[in-house]
Each structure stands twice: as structure tokens, then as C-alpha cells.
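Need C-alpha cells for this chain, all 247 residues.
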Amino acid sequence: MELNHFTETFTVLNADGDFRRMLKPSALFRYVEQAAADHARAYDMDDAFFAARHTAFLVGKQAVEIYRMPTRGEKVTLDTACEPCKKGSMKRITHLRDEAGRELAMVDCRWIVVDTETERILRQPSWCTPNYENDTLEEELPQLVHKMKDLTFAGNWTARYSLCDLNGHVNNSCYLDIACDALPLEVLRKGPLRLASIKYHREIPMGAEVAVSYAPSEDGWYVVGRREEHMAFECYLEFADEAAQKV
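Here are the C-alpha cells for all 247 residues:
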């Protein structure tokens, strides 16, 4: 079965690279989000379209599996496809590939449609766009977050201007920056991110503060953020062992 999908190519910008000259995990999520937005615009679902319907797409949860993180200046092709909304959630699968067609990463993102006037999640959008969606996408990634106890407090983060997006709250990609900043530096120096799963429980509006804590697990790290004593986000991250890869 041929999928209804959308493809575009990005060049990894210098500003999106980390100390390894690899794409930052948050930037990877930003590229995936941009491909999703461009896919919608290609079907005439632009800002005016959503404003007229008082709706917006927000990310509810997402997971990424990274096989090789691209480096600065490298051209990567993103191929993205989505399902219709099912029980208030729309699955979108995005593959990142290098110029030779080798897969670099896969992202499984679950979007929700929100009524911007009532701020309520809609089980189904009020429109139908022919040839935009697929009945089903067989691929998916585990959306599990391995909860841990005995947390270490990493500090308070304020949702400042640089973290917030056009909806006036912390952008979905920036939660990965917060999570990585919360972890000890030796964890990040050990190797690049290879797997992450994140759940967005409660938005963090501009100016709000979130208390972030972390704990190690058997194979990775659990990071959680709380706003006003309520869970705002939680995520699970695993990092590759760079030394082992060089053996």
C-alpha cells in the first residue's frame, strides 16, 4: 500500500549542533515539527485555516529512536506520514535519512487537536482533508516512561522567551533541552542520545516555573518536571556509549 506522505530536506545548521558537532536532540524534534507543519501547509492547512476553526495541533507525547545522529552541514531528508485522529490522538511517523538513503532516526509523535477557545481536547477535528492521512500506520515506538523514585532535585526552570513558541508556552522540543541540562554532564559526555520518550502532561506557559528532578534507571535516566505541584512533563532517556562504539 502506498502511503500519503510528505518529504523535505534540511541541512543541519551550525547553531543546531552540540559539542560533538552532532544535531542536538531538541533540534531534531524541531525539524520533525517543521516537517509536520509544512505537510499541513502543503494541503492548505495554514495558520488562517486553523484560526478560522479555533483549533491547534499540540504534541501529547512522542518517542525517538536514533541510529546515528547527523552532524553539522549534513543534509537529511525527513519523510513524514500521519493517521486520522483516533480517540483524540493522531499518530505521525517521521523517518530521517541521510543522502545515501540510510535511516538516521525514527520519531513517533502523537498529536492532539485542541479547541483554542475552550482549551479542550477534541476527539475528532471538524474538517476532513482528502489524501492527507492514512487509514493506519503500522510502525510505532514504545511511548513508555520508566518512572523512578529517590529523585535528585536539579533546579527550577523558568519558561523564558527563548523556550516558548507561537502558542506562548514551552515548545515540545525544548523539554529535551531542559531534560539534558538537568542531567549530570558526565552522562552527556558519555555518548549521544539514542532513545527518548516524553509525555507532556501540563503546559508550561511563558513566565511559569517548573521544578525539575532526575534519577538513574537500569538502562537510562528518568527526568520529571512539576509546575505548582502538578506533573508538567516526564521523560526517559538512554544514551549511547561512545567509547564502546569506537572499539
